[in-house]
Design brief:
Number of domains: 1
Helix content: 40-55%
Strand content: 5-15%
Shape: globular
CATH class: Alpha Beta
Number of helices: 7
Oligomer: single chain
CATH superfamily: NAD(P)-binding Rossmann-like Domain
Strand order of the largest sheet: 3-2-1-4-5-6
Bound molecules: NADP nicotinamide-adenine-dinucleotide phosphate
Length: 248
């Protein structure tokens, strides 16, 4: 399917009214901007991340804006067990009552590294945070997402998972794997499912991953994550109904 997100998309203010959306890596960068953007468009957001202080700051910003009250779910994706993911799904069902969106923003990336120099710890954490956690979260939350009349899962990807570049290391490998996982899942769900699953490359943003990859770059030369949030909202709202299995 050849689909593109409308470049000039302006999300209606009530686009996500009544929807419950879980965002990983919600304390910083794109995850933070996405959480604030989703809440501003009516969603109840569940802020998942590993640094509680950062999550609390996002919580406070959303609460002060008058948007629906968010929830915080601290979780260290590098060390989470299968039971932790099952517990999370149970808590979301019990406390929030369901789920209509899941955005995988959390990402492990330290630096561009030659394949032969990847540290074992870096390899394992990259696989856990970027791939295994995204799989386990999606799998455990799938029953709730399937029960929603109009749910959307977004794997935040990167062109480094779609092209081959030297030194991309475990980051590039896991981003490529995410793209394939997204396609397989979408194929299994089929076109009649009310749940859609896509991946999204936000392009360069002035946030963690970029700053670690290009430390000498002039920060102002790269747009802030807020710039891409309308396109992410398109993927989460009703305007993208029927779009699934796409790398956008
Ligand atoms: N920035 C870019 O130019 C760019 C370009 C293309 C794609 N992307 C993608 O965009 C997404 C967001 O990246 P970003 O630039 O906004 O990065 P970021 O600011 O570093 O945000 C990454 C988030 O992931 C969280 N995280 C990392 N390890 C974790 C763990 N073990 N458990 C739980 N949370 C963890 C971080 O939490 P803490 O803040 O607590 O560390 C942070 O909130 C990523 O998927 C990235 O691959 C970014």
């Amino acid at each position: 399917m050849s689909v593109s997100i409308p470049a000039d998309y302006v999300p209606p203010v009530d686009l996500l009214a009544g929807r419950r959306i879980l965002i990983t890596g919600a304390g910083d960068g794109l995850g933070r901007a996405a959480a604030i953007g989703c809440a501003a468009h009516g969603a109840t957001v569940i802020l998942l991340g590993r640094t509680v202080k950062k999550l609390e700051a996002v919580y406070d910003a959303i609460e002060a804006s008058g948007a629906p009250q968010p929830a915080i779910y601290p979780m260290h994706l590098a060390g989470a067990s299968w039971k932790d993911y099952a517990d999370l799904a149970g808590t979301v069902e019990r406390e929030i009552g369901g789920l209509d969106g899941l955005v995988h923003c959390a990402s492990h990336f330290k630096a561009f590294t030659p394949m032969s120099d990847i540290e074992p710890k870096d390899w394992v954490e990259g696989l856990q945070v970027n791939l295994s956690a995204a799989y386990a979260l999606t799998r455990n939350l799938l029953p709730l997402l399937k029960a929603s009349p109009d749910a959307s899962v977004v794997f935040v990807s990167d062109r480094h998972g779609r092209e081959v570049h030297a030194f991309d290391g475990i980051y590039g490998i896991t981003k490529a794997a995410i793209e394939q996982m997204m396609r397989i899942w979408a194929a299994e769900l089929g076109t009649r499912s009310s749940l859609r699953i896509n991946s999204f490359d936000p392009g360069p943003m002035r946030s963690g991953v970029r700053l670690r990859g290009y430390p000498g770059e002039r920060a102002e030369s790269v747009p802030p994550p807020e710039r891409v949030v309308p396109r992410l909202l398109w993927l989460l709202g009703a305007d993208s109904r029927g779009v699934s299995g796409c790398a956008l």
